[in-house]
Amino acid sequence: MLKPAILLQAYELMATARAMSDLYDTNRAVCRYVHSTSRGHEAIQLATGMQLQACDWMSPYYRDDSLLLATGFTSYELMLQLLAKKDDPFSGGRSYYCHPSSKAPDKPSIIHQSSATGMQTIPTTGLAQGIQFLEKTFPEKLGRTTEGYLPIALCSFGDGSATEGEVSEALQFATLKQLPIVYLVQDNQWSISASVDEVRAMNVFDYAAGFKGLKRLQCDGSDFEQAYVTMQEAIDYARTERKPVLVHATVPLLGHHTSGVRKEFYRSKDDLAVHALDDPFPKLRHILLANGFTEQELELIETEAISKAAQDFDKAMQAAEPLPGTVTDHVFAPTMVTKESGERTPACGEKVMMVDAALHAVEEIMEKYPEAILYGQDVGARLGGVFREAATLGEKFGAHRVFNTAIQEAYIAGSTAGLSALGLKPIVEVQFADYIYPALNQLVTELSKSCYLTNGKFPVQMVLRVPIGAYGGGGPYHSGSIESTLLSIKGIKVAYPSNAADMKGLMKAAFLDPNPVVMLEHKGLYWSKVPGTEEARTIEPDKDYILPLGQASLVVQANADKIQKGETVCIITYGMGVYWAKAAAEKYPGQVEVMDLRTLYPLDEKAVYELVQKHGKVLVLTEEQQSHSFAESLALRIYNHCYHFLDTRIEVLGALDLPAVPINLALEAEMLPSPAKVAERIAKLLQS
Question: Does residue 556 sit in helix, strand or coil?
């Protein structure tokens, strides 16, 4: 039997949650932004939140307002987000109700929470991964602690979302590494309008049996006492044993899916009546009456909850709206790396290949920053990456800092959000650009939006290394270019070095940047084995060399006299395009200037426009398939900014618009640009 004080606290919170839900429904015209409430889920959420500590991390999902109330957030704070007000403590009016983020020192911390069901399992498992790493390696860096308690992570989601692939990846990693995390799965038998028998072969409790080493518990989540005892066991297990546990809690769905998808749209009266039998509110009321509380006492609690919710709602309605001018705030956290520093070409330096420059950069980073970790497929000590780009790092820094993951690109990318929140600095790798697509869910939904939707509280500091491009018979699944796909994602940065010095300098800058940075590393330039790419090998910069993101470089210069006579062309390119352009320029001595962008976002627009204005004839060159590409987009931007200076229309040259790069060398060559094809375009521009 639980103490009366616990039961009473739960009833007060449940009455508040109920009053808020009723208030929102009554004021539908005012509550115009889409929202869900915890109606029917209150007992399991309160039982969970009341037992978490301020040192913990939690990830609620979109109907967990009772969980938030139980951890100390007020109804007024939640209503500020409901109405998208300026002082919404979570997102400043940018995100939906019950999408919290918090660093409040007296409550569990909360990283960015998205609406994509099941997606939060990976960033939250990343939190548990980070907790375990710090606990074993740097316990003094665990951050705030609650006396007598070690921190855990809690991830809440619905049973309907347990069918997502990301949930499997998270459970796999948590079980394999035995992480201190509680997965709370609330099962209300519905996935919007799809009933349980339509969408799943088993519930999550049965599904999780396949993850050996994952403790499993079940409870009636509408019974507060049973829910409290179950969550007490789960939280104590994760906190003391430092291992993962999953709780499957059955609950009724008494409210709407959301304010926009109302229950009467798809549920029958019989179904609603069955769910109403498990309403947690009268169940808890009955327990309190059996424990000596009077009807009058409980009615007073309910009346006060309704009154307080109404007062808070009126106050929230009067609160200030966000200033329109703040809409662009917090897209990125500011970086301290704004100037090139260190020695790019030290006097006693030796030429190195790009792959070695990358390896040395990461090695120097890991030597200097103990919070840096490296993981991905095959990067561990046994192989050191399929391109040997991480060779020796596993042996030098140990398996706790350099390790292999399973084939799970979503986890590789998404887990960095949790690690970054704990102050770790992950460098992760996807083996080939062609295989980045499973990671896009996390890159788009979680990482890119985190800084913006948390109002700057949780930028994600991570580097995602991606070998890219065609390299001589690599074939259709190992030769692709993906920069246009990445550049359509706002909230990430994209670097694309073309030589060893730039590789090292950009890698350092990417690591120090507090935002997500994708390093595109051309496989054909790694070893300079492709004819004409010998200059990708450069003198290796010193340990202190840093090249800021967003600075282009002029790698071939034209003759000043020919520029003055209007007899020159500028080529704007990056990656392998730099070497095609250089080779083609040799046929037109003094008539071609080649700019290497080096970073695709942020883009050095000032340098681009100044170059175009100087020449008036422009070729934008890319390895990507040309149609709808970054190169075509850049050409339009150049036209819009520089059309008064143009002598002729802008030329764009990219690969043929084929679905993939063929493996046959002759077919590959036919698809891709080449020095000869670039030279033809130069000739065309010079003749115009």
Answer: strand
Q: How many CA atoms lie within 13 A of 149 on its CB side?
A: 20
Name the amino acid, one letter, at 97: Y
Q: Is 324 exposed, middle or buried (0-12, 13-18, 19+ CB in 10 A)?
A: exposed
Q: Tens of pLDDT along 18-41? A: 999 999 999 999 999 999 999 999
Residue type, 477: Y
AA identity, residue 330: H
Tell me: pLDDT of 484 over 80: yes
**Stretch (H or E) spanning 612:** helix 605-615
Torsion of CA 353, 354, 356, 362, to 10 degrees: 160
> How many Å apart are CA 325 and CA 40, to the nearest integer?
40
Q: What is the DSSP letter of 433?
A: G
Separation of alpha carbons 683 and 677, rounded Å: 10
Rounded to the nearest 5 percent, the helix, strand and coil shares of the chain are 45, 15, 40
Q: Residue 347: how many CB atoms within 10 A of its CB?
A: 6
Per the listing, tokens 């309907």 go with 160
Look at residues 171, 174, 206 and name the one whose alpha carbon lies nearest to residue 187: 206
**How far is the C-alpha of 648 from the C-alpha of 618, rounded, in Å?**
8
Residue 365 has pLDDT above 90, yes or no: yes
The rounded distance, in Å, linking the Cα atoms of 21 and 36 is 9
Q: 10 Å Cβ neighbour count for 212? A: 7
Report whether pLDDT(423) > 90.
yes
By the 8 A CB rule, do 515 and 490 touch? no
Single out the residue of 30, 108, 2, 106 nearest to residue 64, CA to CA. Answer: 108
d(CA 601, CA 85): 31
Residue type, 549: L
Assess contact for 174 and 147: CB atoms under 8 A.
no
Provide the Cα torsion 101, 58, 195, 31; round to 10°.
Answer: -30
With 0-12 / 13-18 / 19 or more C-beta atoms within 10 angstroms meaning exposed / middle / buried, residue 168 is buried
pLDDT at 145 over 70: no
DSSP label at residue 227: H
Residue length of the chain: 688
pLDDT tens-digit map of 185-222: 999 988 888 888 888 889 999 999 999 999 999 999 99
Looking at the DSSP bridge assignments, the partners of residue 652 are: 620
Are 651 and 620 in contact by the 8 Å Cβ rule? The answer is: yes
Distance of CA 479 to the CA centre of its chain: 25
pTM, two decimals, is 0.96
Question: With 70 as the cut, is the pLDDT of residue 290 above it?
Answer: yes
Residues annotated as part of the active site: 478
Compute the average pLDDT of residues 322-335.
98
The partner residues of 621 in beta bridges, in order of sequence, read 653
- For residue 579, which amino acid is it? Y
